[in-house]
Design goal:
Blueprint: H1 7-18, H2 25-62, H3 71-83
Length: 84
């Protein structure tokens, strides 16, 4: 497999290897890809949680039970739940 990098990304990879933290460029790229995969999983979980909350709100609205919340209140509640 051949990967082309911008000059800035190539310089970044080179600096990481020169720092001694990595033995070669492949290690830097592999770690970056693993981190990206981890972030994508977290984002997918966050999106699923948001969808679940929207469905709860939708069902409450259909039953006429929806509380009066502002968008700011809604976002604050999502943040609280996400933090656990």
């Amino acid at each position: 497999m051949h990967i082309s990098l911008t000059a800035a990304l190539e310089a970044y990879v080179r600096r990481k290897v020169e720092s001694g933290l990595y033995n070669n460029a492949s290690e830097v790229i592999r770690e970056a890809l693993r981190e990206r995969i981890r972030v994508e999983h977290i984002e997918a979980e966050d999106l699923e949680a948001l969808r679940a909350q929207v469905m709860v709100g939708w069902e409450q609205a259909e039953r006429g039970e929806l509380a009066e919340w502002s968008a700011k209140d809604f976002i604050a509640e999502l943040d609280r739940e996400r933090r656990g």
